[in-house]
Design a protein that fits this description.
2 helices, mainly beta, single chain
């Protein structure tokens, strides 16, 4: 079970965290950092469920990306969680030409880690945000 949502990849609006690139997706904090009390720089783990163009049409020829693990680094700004792509995750997307402001990704967030503690995200239900 997990938190499932999709968002357009964008260039960051605040400085990227260490070990991340300045590319992010976002979600309202009430779904992730608030209920799980996650601090800035928490690692967020999940997998890619699908890729869409900026208009929302499914992208073909990225079947190998579906199911790939993805890691983000959290930065909260006001009531929004900005999930910055880790450098390693960016390399996977970049090599398929999945660039900011051109593509949306649908992700399943399964866990978060900070201070050596790993927390399962919505372990009892799939919480899908549209």
């Amino acid at each position: 079970m997990a938190l499932i949502f999709r968002d357009l990849l964008r260039m960051g609006i605040i400085d990227a965290p260490k070990n991340a690139v300045n590319i992010r997706i976002s979600i309202p904090s009430k779904y992730l950092s608030e209920p799980y009390e996650l601090p800035n720089d928490a690692l967020i783990f999940g997998e890619i469920l699908d890729v869409y163009d900026w208009l929302g049409n499914p992208v073909k020829d990225v079947d190998e990306l579906v199911g790939s693990e993805i890691t983000f680094i959290l930065r909260r700004f006001f009531n929004t969680d900005y999930l910055y792509l880790s450098r390693n995750s960016w390399l996977i997307l970049r090599d398929y030409g999945i660039l900011p402001n051109e593509y949306q990704i649908k992700v399943k967030i399964t866990s978060a880690k900070f201070d050596e503690e790993e927390i399962k995200i919505y372990p009892k239900v799939d919480k899908e945000i549209s």
